[in-house]
């Protein structure tokens, strides 16, 4: 079975305007089992900042017991132009964040004054898998937090699907 790789890049974001306060930036949801051939495997998360104030930033990939909803649709870009459209859907903007028990799946930590970090699994067993159905096991959100305020940053998340 072939796998198809997709990426979502978000440029020109800022962390929260209140110090050490989390902001949500991207929601990922898997489709129902009937609409897909398999789960979503998150294979990379990277971020970089361009701020003027010293401090640290964190970008976390988290899942919630109740998945978030709404927001502005974001189309994942296939790494190969011949790939089919991604089954996993994404949204940014003013989406309703997930709720209930939170599980942090991966994270990157980088300096606010310019620097970057990348997360990727060391092997297959370390990867993040979003199961089909979108619910508690099929959702993820990308959220930022920084001790300086309004730090400008960009991020990229890459995933693949069967």
Question: How does this model look, in words?
Answer:
The protein has one domain: Jelly Rolls, CATH 2.60.120. It is about 0% helix and about 60% strand. It contains no helices and twelve strands. It has strands at about 5-15, 25-30, 40-50, 55-65, 70-75, 75-80, 90-95, 100-110, 115-120, 130, 140-145, 150-160. The strands form two sheets. Strands 1, 3, 6, 9, 10 and 12 form a six-stranded antiparallel beta sheet that branches. The N and C termini lie close together (about 5 Å).
Quickly list its features.
58% strand, globular, mainly beta, 162 residues, Jelly Rolls
Query: Mean pLDDT across all residues, rounded?
Result: 92
Secondary-structure arrangement, i.e. CATH architecture: Sandwich
Number of domains: 1
> How far do the termini sit from each other?
7 Å
Oligomer: single chain
* Strand-residue proportion: over 45%
Which topology does CATH recognise?
Answer: Jelly Rolls
Number of helices: 0
Question: What value does the Rg take, in angstroms?
Answer: 15 Å
* Global outline: globular
Tally of DSSP β-strands: 12
List the helices and strands and how they pair.
Elements: E1 4-14, E2 23-29, E3 40-49, E4 56-66, E5 69-74, E6 77-78, E7 89-96, E8 99-111, E9 115-119, E10 128-130, E11 139-146, E12 152-161
Antiparallel strand pairs: 1-6, 1-12, 2-7, 2-11, 3-9, 3-10, 3-12, 4-8, 4-11, 5-7
Give a short synopsis of this structure:
The chain is mainly beta and 162 residues long. The protein has a single domain, classed as Jelly Rolls (Sandwich), CATH 2.60.120.
